Structures are given as C-alpha cells and as structure tokens.
C-alpha cells in the first residue's frame, strides 16, 4: 500500500494541537467577566459588596472607593470615596445593616455609613499611574479617566490596635466583630457600638481570622515570618469565644503543622471551615483545606492549589460552593461536598511570577463575584442565577 | 615598608613561634606577618570591630532611607529619632532613641549585584572576579589589630557571613566560625582530660616538627596552624561560654539567635577579640519583602540597640566600631511578589562607635531612592573609612608572589566627615 506522506505530514500538526487542547484545557466552564473597574492608584487589596448593587474596594495606599453596579450600563464609575485611612487596607467587611468595616496597616479599624451626607466632592483620575508612567518615560500619556466622587469620613474610628490589622471577622448577626494585629493582639468588639469587650493574645502575628457565624468559635492563623531563623512560627488554633481558651491547637496536627494560612472562613451554617495556605509557597501548594470545626479534623484538601500561594477564601451564600483567590491571578470556585473544582475565573498573568488577586467577595444574593486585582482593578464576574 | 607574607622563610617562621608555659611550641596567631609599627599603634588604642551582616541584603527604603508618600515607599512609616531631622523606620524604635550614635551612609553605590560576588566584594572591597584571593575585612583587622599573644581567635564569625576567608594573608587569619546559635564547633571540645590532651599534643607536635623540618610546604603550614589554633582554643573556650550571662541579657538583646550572637560579640570584644561578625538571615526578600523586613526588624532592633547600649555602659563603644551592612540594598521598585530585588545603585550602610561621629546622615538619594544624589560612596571608600577608624592604613601593601596588592583599591577615600 502506498503511504501518502504529504497527507500524514498535513495531519500531524492538527492532531498535535488537538491533543494539546484536550490535555491542557481546563474542564471547568469559564465565567463571563462582567466589569473591570479600573483604579490604578496602587494595588487593590480588599473588596466587599455593600449590597447586591454596590461594591467597595480598598488599596495599598489606604484609599477606599464605592461603585454602583448596574446591568443596564457599561463600565460603572466610582461614586463615593471614603477618606481617613493612611496605609494599606487589608480587609473589608459589610455588616448585616449595611455598614462597611475596614482594617488597615495604619493600626485603625474604621466603620463607614455610606448613606450619610457627603462632606464634599472631588474629581479623581482612575488611570493616574499609567499616565504618570508614560510622562516619566517622556511618552504621550493616555487620556485621563476621570470620575466625580462624593467624599465621606468614617462614622467611627477604632484605635485599640497598635500594629497592622490583618484579621477581621464578623458574626452572622453582626453583633460581634473580632480583629487581630501583628502584635498578636485580638480584640472582640460589641457591635454596633464598637465597644471593646475582650482581648486575647496569640504568639505570632494574626494573619487569617474567622469567627463562626453564631460566635462560639474563633479560627486564628498566626505567624512570625522568618525564613531561616529559629524564631519562625506558624500557628492555627480554634479558640473558645466565651472563655478565650484554646479549643483545638491545629498547628500540632500533621495536616496543618508548619503551614502559614493567609485566609480563613466559616460556611454559612458554621459546620465547615476553610483555611488557605499563603505567603509565597512552592508550586501549587497554595491549597485550601476544609476542616470540621467540631473535631478540628481535616475534611479534604482542594487541589490543585494556587500557584505560589492562596490569598483569600470565601463561601458562597448557598454554602455549597467556596471561592479562593491566589498569587496566580485566578479565582476558583469549588464544590464543598466533593471538593471538585467547578469553575475558574481569570487567567494567569505576568511572567515567571503572576499578579495576585488579593481578595474575593460574593454579593449577598450570590449572583456576583468580585476580585481585588493587584494590577489596579476590581474584576466582577457573573455567577448567573445559582 | 612592604609586608612579605608569601615567600615565608624558615627564619621568619621561627621568629613567629612562641614557647608556651608548658614548653609547647605554638605558632603565633597574628604575629608572623605583622607590620609592627601599625600593629603597635592599633593595639595601643585597642580598637575592635563588630560587623552586623544582613545576609541577603536589607532594604534601605524600609529601614534608614525611607520615602513616605512616594510610589516606592512601601507600608512602613518613619518615626522621629533622637536626632532632629533624621527619621528611621517605625519598627526600629530602640535604634531611633540611639541615632545620635549612628552615622547613616545613604549613598552607597556598589558594583556587585548578586549574592556570592556581593558578599565577597562587601567583605574585601575587591571584585570576586579578580585573580588575587583578597582577605576579608575580619582577616585584615585580625592581622593589624589582633593580639598575637592571645589564646582566643582574632577573627570570629557567627552565622551566615563572609565567603572569602583570609585570602592572601594565609591560614593564620582564617576565621573561627560558630553556628548561628553560637554553638562551638565540634573540634573545640576536648575528648580527654587536659593532661592526656597535652601529652598527645606534645607527641604529635614532636612528630610533625620532624616532618616539617623536611617539608616546608604551604599545606603543611596550614595544617599545623589550624591544629595549634584548635589546641589554644580548647584552653580558652570558657570565653565562649555565655550560658551564665545570657539569661540576664535576653531582654536587652531579644531572645533570638541574632540577639545571642550580638551578645556573644560583645563578650568576645571585651575579651580582646578584635573582629567579630554576626550574621542575620532572611533579608533576601524577592517575595513578601515587608513581612520579611518586619520580622527581621523585630529581631534586629533589640539586638543592635542592646549591643550599642552594652558597649557604651562598659566603656567599650568609643573603641568598638559597629558596622551594619549586607551585600546589596534592595530595589525601590516593589515587584509583583510584594518583594524588592537586589539593588546596588543607591543603598545604605550604618556605622557606629569606634570613634565614628554619630547623629549624622552622609549622602542622599533622590526622591524615589533610585539614584544617589549626593556623595556616592564605593566599597573602597567604605573600607578606607573603616580601616582609618581602626588605625589601619587603607593603603597597607602586601605581596602576592611579586605582585603588590593594597588593603583598599586605588582612589579609595575615607569619608572624613564621619571620623570623630
């Protein structure tokens, strides 16, 4: 039989491409990106939905902006600027009554009533950094993207901490707020008065923190970030919120020992907790681990982990899904019951090391997912009607 | 006068050999190649040096050359020091209260941007690529300031430090290295009684003397020198025992490896060691620079300030130069790993004590810390300043074969305004 070499040669490339596609294409469905809210003043580091239409984001400079989203319009512009913080916004939360709570490296927690009358207005340039870069290189800058914003101050400033505040969590009823700082100080606040109720102490710097929905337990991940020195520390504990005592020291468990966790969350019913390994970890070890808070035992590990580390973790309001973000510019949606990766949002971006999605948030109705993008943007994806 | 150290004659070797109390011939630690005039001068003043080595390279912008409000500034905030107009990082509060002792050089512009070559360059003031094996600063100071009659080593390293050793100065000035936890090397612990040890030593030396009379090669000399040092060290090892004093000093220095190392350094210079280097790890913060530096400064601040306080209280600070430096600075630009990379164009080194005029900043960088604006300082200039402070001629000359080499490169200038 005569072999048609020309035909074979012609088939090799398409077959190779097909094989490559089959082996590399993610099995998950890609979600549509609905909006990119550009804001390049610095890295966007925190994000929270105020309600189903409004979203707040904070950045490394301590600035906070609020956008109103509408499916009927194009790219929305920010409408509100929240003035007061002077250093990185590490966490943003929204209370059940719609107050925004922010924790910062400036050692303060601020509580914001975004419905209160503005103290003034201002015009901001959302692509200021890009323009400045071009001007420094003596190139033509892009057209300024301007937005007129109302400006408000915080309703309350909580000054109980004396160091960077990286831990912030709220009970489901919004009556108890817990915050933790880099001196290992944990403060339990009675809300809405923001009265200091109790102080607890950890050995290391509080990094990730989640209070259970009904306020019985507090999951705390702390660390002392030294690479080689004997003073290095990585802790993970469940504390009793009533007594302040240690319920379970998970850092003695082989599943959790020596790992540093950048994020923690409880499921809406409080029966499952999730912790996400952070810092710059090797390869795909930026994994989320589900655990049973009643026993402290690992339920399952979600794989693959985020390349170089995870940054945040949050449950969907339905309790059946979980979202994680990482240092690989992606957000992942996981099925809680079997730990399978359901969808992936975003694409790895950057060189050898990717840009980070610093934080994620889901709207109260579960229809929208937001990611705080290091590149200077808030990205919002539609989750459809779940 | 040239200092000969390579073509070692038997006469010179014999000149450098001492008779110990037990009649044991032990090679002189520092005397063989001594330039007597300079050495006597330095010894008279009993100058010493402690090098605090920031292994990996500390960030100048996050410590002593802060740029608040600039895109390169980072999340740390400056605090006022006890010197009007000088600010340092908020996580160096104890040092801020001692800034009148510090001379901050903000205008280092160096040439070796990576670790091995940077470590070599900042320990020798010469490029690693040169064919001449240059000695580390510790070896040079041991030679010119060390006490040749001392049983304890004249060049001690603790933790991660230099990589050049004694270079052309020869095995006599090789460093004595301790672990980061100040643990003594295994050979320093005798395995038998002192009497047995002495008898064995005498026998070994007798045999080696016989052998050495016919084999005068460098490796043999090196071997004998090391052996003699080990013997002497075993006799002097109590100097290294800080177990009784350390608990009382933990609070001042911080209960860390580096804190313990700084305390050990204080004990050693007090006992007459002219040069001690203490390394602090973790500075190579290509990722998570700010948490790295935050953790490091929590260790550094009490250790360094505790050392200065201790030296001052004991009347040692005036004659003990404390140098704070690493092999590189770190980039003003913050990368997408929240890190800062290596940077040699404009970075910071700090000197204190030893006659240095404190409470001043030398040199300046531009508003974003990208370039030196005033008074650039090279490796050679820095070493010339250090050597001058310690009474060592920065142009001291040695010979490698027939080739002359100098303690600092041609053109290096001591920074006169820093000298007290």
Q: How far is it from the N-terminal to the C-terminal residue of chain B, by CA?
A: 28 Å
* Low-pLDDT residue spans of chain B: 1-39
Count of DSSP strands of chain B: 18
Q: Helical content of chain B, roughly?
A: 25-40%
Question: In CATH terms, what is the fold-level topology of chain A?
Answer: Methylamine Dehydrogenase, Chain H
Find the structural class of chain B using helix and strand composition: alpha/beta
Sketch the topology of chain B as an H/E string, one letter per element: HEEHEEEHEHHEEHHHHEHEEEEEEEHEE
Strand content of chain B: 15-25%
Morphology call of chain A:
globular
Number of domains of chain B: 1
Summarize model confidence as the mean pLDDT of chain B.
Answer: 87
The CATH topology of chain B is what? Alkaline Phosphatase, subunit A
What's the helical proportion of residues of chain A? under 10%
Count of β-strands of chain A: 31
The CATH architecture assignment of chain A turns out to be: 7 Propeller
Q: What is the number of domains of chain A?
A: 1
Written account of the structure:
The complex is a heterodimer of chains A (386) and B (420). With 386 residues, chain A is mostly beta strands. Helix content of chain A is 8%, strand content 47%. Chain A has 2 helices and 31 strands. Chain A has helices at residues 5-24, 128-136, and strands at 29-30, 33-38, 44-49, 54-59, 64-68, 78-83, 89-94, 100-104, 109-112, 120-125, 146-153, 156-158, 165-170, 176-181, 185-190, 195-201, 205-211, 217-224, 233-240, 246-249, 261-266, 273-277, 286-292, 297-306, 310-315, 321-326, 331-335, 341-345, 357-362, 368-373, 377-382. In chain A, the strands form 7 sheets. A 6-stranded mixed sheet of chain A has the order 3-4-5-6-11-10, with no helix packed on it. Chain A has a 5-stranded mixed sheet with strand order 1-28-27-26-25, with no helix packed on it. In chain A, strands 2-31-30-29 form a 4-stranded antiparallel sheet, with no helix packed on it. Chain B is an alpha/beta fold. Chain B has a single domain (10-418), classed as Alkaline Phosphatase, subunit A. In chain B, the strands form 6 sheets. Chain B has an 8-stranded mixed sheet, with helices on both faces. A two-stranded antiparallel ribbon of chain B has the order 1-2. In chain B, β4 (78-80) and β5 (87-89) form a beta hairpin. Chain B starts with 9 loop residues before the first helix and ends in a 14-residue tail after the last strand. Chains A and B meet through loops of A and α10 of B.
